[in-house]
Write a structure and sequence with these properties.
Blueprint lengths: L1 H10 L9 E4 L5 E3 L2 E3 L9 E3 L4 E3 L23 E3 L11 E4 L8 E5 L43
Parallel strand pairs: 2-8
Antiparallel strand pairs: 1-2, 3-4, 5-6, 7-8
Length: 153
């Protein structure tokens, strides 16, 4: 919230009075704070806090070697499942709609106050600049270390 509060202070706004772009995802789509237009296509509609469409699963977790067992309580990512239409956002924690920077509409990601606060998958292909050029480090080494040349990269 520190970044969002700082942006609001700089613009003389209170949180929720405007959509706040906080970054860009690897696939080129913008990322916004949790507020968006009630009618996604209408930039003049009131703002509301957008909700994720992920919910806690109702059935118990598998136990034994397959999992920790017990009732899903949000301690594990797998405690959640995507339930289309249960919130405002899609499985990537985004939606298509009008934003201040894109009044005719664009796809955008939303940070939310509930799981998954930050999107966990991308809608499109990441820009090639996000790919490692030499592949992952070999033999547990760090990037920039000498690698055993007998292992292909």
């Amino acid at each position: 919230l520190g970044l969002i509060e700082e942006i609001c202070t700089q613009r003389g706004l209170k949180r929720g009075e405007a959509m706040i772009q906080i970054g860009w995802a690897a696939d080129g789509f913008p990322i916004y704070d949790s507020f968006g237009h009630t009618d996604a296509k209408d930039a003049k509609s009131p703002l509301k806090q957008l909700r994720s469409s992920y919910q806690l699963k109702k059935e118990d977790r598998p136990g034994g070697e397959q999992g920790p067992g017990g009732k899903p309580d949000g301690n594990y990512t797998r405690d959640y499942e995507f339930v289309a239409g249960s919130g405002d956002l899609d499985e990537c924690n985004g939606r298509f709609g009008a934003t201040p920077e894109f009044p005719d509409g664009t796809y955008y990601y939303v940070t939310t106050t509930e799981f998954p606060s930050i999107h966990r998958m991308l809608r499109a292909t990441p820009d090639k600049s996000f790919r490692k050029m030499d592949g992952p480090p070999q033999n547990g080494g760090e990037t920039g270390q000498n690698h055993d040349e007998s292992h292909p990269r």
